[in-house]
Design a protein that fits this description.
Blueprint lengths: L1 E2 L7 E2 L16 E2 L4 E2 L1 H15 L3 H4 L1 H19 L3 H5 L2 E2 L5 H10 L9 H22 L1 H22 L5 E2 L3 H17 L5 H13 L7
Antiparallel strand pairs: 1-2, 3-4, 5-6
Helix pairs in contact: 3-6, 5-7, 6-7, 6-8, 7-8, 8-9
């Protein structure tokens, strides 16, 4: 028999599953498998609090704000249709170069008011990807990533679409988040096969009529 590392006068045959130190019944905390010593049990509690006891709002606040902005703009478009073109639609060739560049960004926060499935699908995708990526890279980097993804999608329309084309939606930002998540998976040396398939499918869909 061995002695407890905290109570040398107590013999025990139980050891911590993480550090292998011997512990008596008073020092043993049940773990996923076996028992943990007091120090390792505290570390486990801290990890659980960090990862499981925080709300989605605190883990991914930028994501939740972006979803709120998109929904707010959608309702404004629905309530005041005449303001849609003036405020958020991306009309290539109609405005000045400055106006077109600005709308390449603002169009990413607008959706077709007549198609609720459009915003629902995009916001669901933003929620899933945002709550994964934002905690990994931080609020500031996630914000920059999202804005650059929207703007990059707008520039893609300028370059690839016919003159005078108008587009709306957060799809460009979502596509950018997919690409970023693929990079993160590869950097962490995790299986990225599903992301390759998902990005490939969305890339093909982007060339179908009515989809940017």
């Amino acid at each position: 028999m061995n002695s407890c590392y905290r109570h040398p006068d107590r013999e025990t045959g139980v050891s911590c599953q993480r550090c292998d130190r011997y512990i008596c019944p008073d020092c043993a905390t049940p773990g996923a498998v076996g028992y943990l010593c007091p120090e390792d049990a505290k570390d486990t509690i801290k990890i659980r609090k960090a990862n499981f006891q925080k709300s989605i709002t605190s883990l991914a606040p930028v994501t939740m704000v972006l979803i709120g902005i998109n929904i707010l703009v959608y309702f404004i478009q629905w309530l005041i249709p005449p303001l849609t073109d003036a405020l958020v639609y991306f009309n290539v060739g109609v405005d000045s170069e400055y106006g077109s560049a600005l709308r390449a960004l603002t169009s990413g926060f607008a959706h077709d008011p007549s198609q609720i499935a459009h915003i629902l699908f995009n916001m669901y995708s933003l929620y899933v990807l945002g709550t994964i990526i934002e905690p990994m890279i931080g609020k500031f980097r996630f914000t920059i990533l999202y804005v650059l993804s929207i703007f990059g999608g707008g520039l893609g329309v300028l370059y690839l679409a016919e003159f005078g084309t108008s587009v709306v939606g957060a799809s460009g930002a979502i596509f950018g988040l997919m690409g970023a998540y693929l990079v993160l998976l590869r950097a962490l040396k995790l299986d990225a096969s599903q992301m390759y398939v998902l990005i490939g499918i969305n890339l093909v869909l982007g060339f179908l009529p009515g989809i940017a």
